[in-house]
Description:
Elements: E1 4-8, H1 14-24, H2 34-43, E2 48-53, E3 56-65, E4 70-77, H3 86-101, E5 106-108, H4 115-123
Parallel strand pairs: 4-5
Antiparallel strand pairs: 1-2, 2-3, 3-4
Amino acid sequence: MDDLHLGxxxxxxxxxxxxFWKTAAxxxxxxxxxxxxxxxxxxxxxxxxLARCGGELVGTVIAGFDGWRCHLYRLAVHPAHRRxxxxxxxxxxxxxxxxxxxxxxxDAMVLDGNAQAHGAWDAAGYRxxxxxxxxxxxxxxx
Length: 142
């Protein structure tokens, strides 16, 4: 895509990103609100990567690095723009970011029931981990 532009979100982009996820992403999280994405942005303003075509927001990925591990969240491409390489481009940008930061392995949060996403992640070289399962607990006071 010649008119595809990738780069980190700005603070002004955050409300539009939340609206975008309502259309383009499956599932929700307790941090899918303005306060949640503002905390992400304040902590690591380079983590939320956006894809734009002709100025229109068409894709996102969160490429978080905690200093030890690389984590991918919210890889989402607008339904009208899928199967054009946008997700692959976002993942390549995220992986380049991780390499620059010294990351050695990336993991991705993928909904078990999202078969379409499984195909995309598989095509990108990611596999389900056979020995680890994610355990979660909401933090009190949030």
